[in-house]
User: Which sequence fits this backbone?
């Protein structure tokens, strides 16, 4: 459920972009009606409307996630706050300048922020963020926790590079598809691979 909750803005982004792709004039009408005051020049072309509308929906969805958690008096993860800040800045730039380049950079900035946080926390602050998140579920030795933390940092670094390659070498439609299905698939594959490798270390510590 948490996985689906985290994916909520990405799913809505995908759905709204696909709808806008199939109904470009209607998407442009919605942009003109609801976003014209946020767009430089006050207008967007038919081709720009789907990504702008999808970006606006993703921003609202992320704000909604945080609002939902706060209303239920639940803790809002730091990563979610970081995600909100990044999507507001880069998504807002996409809407204002009606330029999809900014929102295409958003996943990379987010992944690299996560990766940098993991590395800096371990090497500078002597804190293992992955351990702090997972120590209630796993019992591992200190060297394994360190390797796990750095492997996640490397994974996020690689994901950021993959996003840039896909975003600027393929069509926007392909990037939107990959953003949901490709990155989700890569994340699941990485988690499964990590689980298989960790199972041996968990047994060794018991």
Assistant:
């Amino acid at each position: 459920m948490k996985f689906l909750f985290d994916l909520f803005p990405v799913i809505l982004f995908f759905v709204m972009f696909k709808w806008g792709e199939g109904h470009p004039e209607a998407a442009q009408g919605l942009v003109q009606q609801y976003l014209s005051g946020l767009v430089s020049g006050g207008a967007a072309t038919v081709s720009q409307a789907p990504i702008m509308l999808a970006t606006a929906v993703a921003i609202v969805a992320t704000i909604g996630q945080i609002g939902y958690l706060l209303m239920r008096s639940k803790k809002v993860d730091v990563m979610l706050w970081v995600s909100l800040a990044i999507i507001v800045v880069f998504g807002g730039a996409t809407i204002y300048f009606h330029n999809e380049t900014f929102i295409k950079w958003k996943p990379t900035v987010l992944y690299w922020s996560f990766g940098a946080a993991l590395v800096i926390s371990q090497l500078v602050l002597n804190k293992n963020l992955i351990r702090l998140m997972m120590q209630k579920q796993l019992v591992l030795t200190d060297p394994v926790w360190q390797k796990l933390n750095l492997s996640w940092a490397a994974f996020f670094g690689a994901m950021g590079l993959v996003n840039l390659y896909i975003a600027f070498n393929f069509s926007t439609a392909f990037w939107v598809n990959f953003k949901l299905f490709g990155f989700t698939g890569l994340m699941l594959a990485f988690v499964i691979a990590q689980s298989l490798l960790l199972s041996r270390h968990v047994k060794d510590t018991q």
Remarks:
- Residues 110 and 202 are 30 Å apart (CA to CA).
